[in-house]
Amino acid sequence: MRAFPEFRAMGPSFWALIKYISETLGYTVRKQGVVRTYEIDEMSDLLSENGIAVDIDTLASAKLYFDKRADLLNNYVRLNLMTADEAKDVFTDLYPLHRDNHFLCKLPMNKQKGAMRQVAFFTAIINIIAEDTIRHSRVYDGTLGFNDDPRGLSYTLDDDNRIVGASSRRFDGAYPNILNPKAVWEIKEYYYATTFGSRVADGVYETQLDGYEFKGIAARTGRPVTHIFFLDAYKTWWVDGKSYLCRIIDTLNAGLVDEVIVGREVLTRWPEVLQSIIDE
């Protein structure tokens, strides 16, 4: 998913307003299990009651944004999120591609114990698709072609190979590597989570901070890094975490992440995104 083009020019004050209305009026329709939108009169009354000034054009833009956010989440994101069993089926279908072609990418295990100890299905799917895309591209040289397990921060170098920017956190993947990456990605798969823990919320906030950092690096150096956020797990994100899905869509549209890829969308959108980065 890319950002809605209508809101590319919106500044920080607009996104602050979006946060305020969402948090105050609530993200969901109670007992209906859907993300809500808001009427202009409803928003206007809220702001007036709290002494907050806003012009009608801004309210109209907010209304359009909330409508599009609710439609995207209720009718697209929800349908693409997978359960553990569904993700396992997708991985099982892709695994022969990895096995029969002697792929080099890692298929890591999750951090669960006992019966829940499984391949990290979503991460493995992402890695297989990335390697397959690179193998069919003009840059393929017989190596893996991307970093599937970064064990360090990402660094931006100038034309003289001096470090001019650095990330504060490690990512789950980078293309082509963590030195002068063209893209980095974060993966949040929570198939076996039993509660909506603080680590899920922290992941959303960390992604926002990463976005500010990359925007600053690009502004200073003219060297942008495509910042991608992958997420999956129907229960964690939809049943328990719809408000955080709203915040992720807000983060996307505020320009703090370049692409959000959800569940089954990885099969079609991820190869397109990676190929476009390779072709730049």
Q: Can you walk me through this structure?
A:
With 280 residues, this protein is α/β, with parallel strands linked by helices. The chain is 49% helix and 11% strand. The protein has 9 helices and 8 strands. It has helices spanning 12-25, 40-49, 56-80, 84-100, 121-135, 198-221, 234-239, 242-253, 266-278, and strands at 28-29, 34-35, 155-157, 163-166, 173-175, 183-189, 226-232, 259-262. The strands form 3 sheets. It has a 4-stranded mixed β-sheet with strand order 5-6-7-8, with helices on both faces. Strands 1-2 form a two-stranded antiparallel sheet. The protein has a two-stranded antiparallel sheet with strand order 3-4. Strand 5 and strand 6 (183-189) form a beta hairpin. Helix 4 runs parallel beside helix 5 (121-135), helix 5 packs across helix 9 and helix 6 packs parallel to helix 8 (242-253). The radius of gyration is 20 Å and the shape is globular.
Any key phrases for this structure?
two-stranded antiparallel sheet; 280 residues; four-stranded mixed β-sheet; alpha/beta; 11% strand; 9 helices
Secondary structure elements and pairings:
Blueprint lengths: L11 H14 L2 E2 L4 E2 L4 H10 L6 H25 L3 H17 L20 H15 L19 E3 L5 E4 L6 E3 L7 E7 L8 H24 L4 E7 L1 H6 L2 H12 L5 E4 L3 H13 L2
Helix pairs in contact: 4-5, 5-9, 6-8
Task: Give the structure's gist in a few sentences.
This protein is α/β, with parallel strands linked by helices. It contains 9 helices and 8 strands.
User: Unreliable runs, pLDDT <50, ≥5 residues?
Assistant: none
Mean pLDDT equals 95
Helix amount: 40-55%
The number of helices is: 9
What best-fitting shape do the alpha-carbon axes yield?
A: globular
